[in-house]
Amino acid sequence: MRRNFKAILAYDGADFCGWQVQPARRTIQGELAEAIRRVIGEQVLPQGSGRTDAGVHALGQVASFALASPIPAPNLQTALNHTLPLSIRVLAVEEVPHAFHARHSAKAKTYEYRIYRGDICPPFIARYVHHHPYPLNEGAVSDAAKLVIGEHDFTSFAAVDPERGKDEDEVDNFRTIFSSSWQRQGEMFTYRVRGDGFLHHMVRNLVGTFLLIGKGSIAVDAIPNILAKKSRSQAGPTAPAQGLFLVSVEY
Fold this sequence. Notes:
The protein folds into 2 domains: about 5-95, Alpha-Beta Plaits, CATH 3.30.70.580; about 110-250, Pseudouridine synthase I, catalytic domain, C-terminal subdomain (Alpha-Beta Plaits). Helices cover about 20% and strands about 30% of the residues. It has 5 helices and 10 strands. Strand 8 (about 175-185) and strand 9 (about 190-195) form a beta hairpin. The radius of gyration is 19 Å and the shape is globular.
C-alpha cells in the first residue's frame, strides 16, 4: 500500500520558473519530482500547498506525495537533500494520513513581502528584497494594510490566470485575511499577511497598491472602494516577485 508523505521545503526561487512543472524550464516541483525519482525510482508529481511564481521564495512550502517505497521518512529527507540543488532544502518529512493533501487540506497561509528602504541595496540581499529607496509615507501604508483584514471579494487584487480551470478554488475570489501589517526594522520594511488562502498575484498586487498609497497617488480610505469595484484596473501594479516569501502553511 502506498504511503502518503508531507514535506516542508525552503527554497531560493530566484533561479526557478516558479513551483509548477513547465516544459524545458527549471521549477521547484520539477526538481523535487526528479529528486524523488533518483532516490526512490518512482515517478510522482508532488502537490504543493500553492503555486509560487517565478522568482518567489519559500521558508515553509508544503508538498505531499504518495510512495510505494518502505523508506523511513528521516532517510527520505536526508537522501532528497543530497540530491536536490542547494537552493532547495527539505526541512522535514513525515508520513501522514492518506486524506492529507498539501493544498486541499490547508487552513491558512502566511506570506511576507520585504522592501529594502536604504539608498544602496547590499548586493547579497538584492535577490530577496524589493529595493524602494524613494519617499514613502510608511504610516499611510500601515494604515491601508489594516483595511483588507476580514472576508472580502479580492477580485481587484487578483491577476487573470488562464491556467486555472473552473474547478479550481480561485473561481471563488472571496478570501478571509486574519492579519495584515507592516513592520520597520532597520532599513527593512516588511509586510506580513495571514489568510485562509490567496489569489494569483494577490499579495504582490496588495503591496503594489499600498506603495501607491505611500506615494500619495491613492488615498488610504480608497481600499474599501477598490475592493467593492471588483476590477483589477482599480488597484495598483504588481510588486516585483523577489520580495515575496511563502512563510508557512497551517493545517
